[in-house]
Design goal:
Helices cover 33% and strands 28% of the residues. By secondary structure, it is of the alpha/beta class. The protein has one domain: P-loop containing nucleotide triphosphate hydrolases (Rossmann fold), CATH 3.40.50. It comes from Thermoplasma volcanium (strain ATCC 51530 / DSM 4299 / JCM 9571 / NBRC 15438 / GSS1).
């Protein structure tokens, strides 16, 4: 079976200071690097999913506000929430509603800074509430310590690839 080449754009959004740049850095480079260019950052992967060989180029685009400009071209949205800030959860809800209103469904919420759990104002029950209300998936991570990244990207890729293959089968 031939390798299917795909290019996906992941829009990374969330409140200021939530850890969007650190999240991208950890996913792409395997370590936190606080200074990233505000351009697209690319990661290439080869996977076999449901018997299909895929070569996927993932473009990560960090955005601060104005997410409506990125909705039409995004494959997925990753909303980073600072678990030490209740305002971060409120902003995440607003972003998710805007994305859902545009009929987009590949939304993943990242609860960041779990290494600061004793300062947390948001925790798993709040993330479960988002999941149930908006049909999103969520993950709890620490970009500082690298906790929670073991299967995160694999899970996101599998979720999107499975939905994409199901949609194409119905066309």
């Amino acid at each position: 079976m031939p390798i299917q080449r795909l290019a996906w754009k992941f829009v990374i959004a969330g409140s200021k200071g939530a850890g969007k740049s650190s999240f991208i850095s950890y996913i792409v480079y395997g370590e936190p690097a606080p200074i990233l260019p505000r351009s697209l950052v690319k990661k290439s992967l080869n996977r076999e999913i449901n018997g299909h060989k895929l070569a996927v180029d993932i473009l990560f685009q960090e955005v601060d506000g104005g997410i409506e400009n990125f909705i039409p071209t995004a494959t997925a949205f990753i909303i980073v929430v600072d678990v030490t800030s209740a305002d971060s959860l409120s902003e995440a809800r607003n972003i998710i509603m805007e994305i859902k209103n545009a009929k987009k469904n590949n939304i993943f919420v990242i609860g960041n800074k779990i290494d600061l759990k004793y300062e947390a104002q948001i925790w798993i029950d709040d993330m479960e509430e988002l999941k149930n209300k908006f049909s999103t998936k969520y993950y709890m991570v620490s970009c500082k310590d690298g906790i929670g990244f073991e299967t995160l990207l694999e899970d996101i890729i599998n979720s999107i690839a499975t939905k994409t293959q199901a949609r194409r089968a119905n066309e």
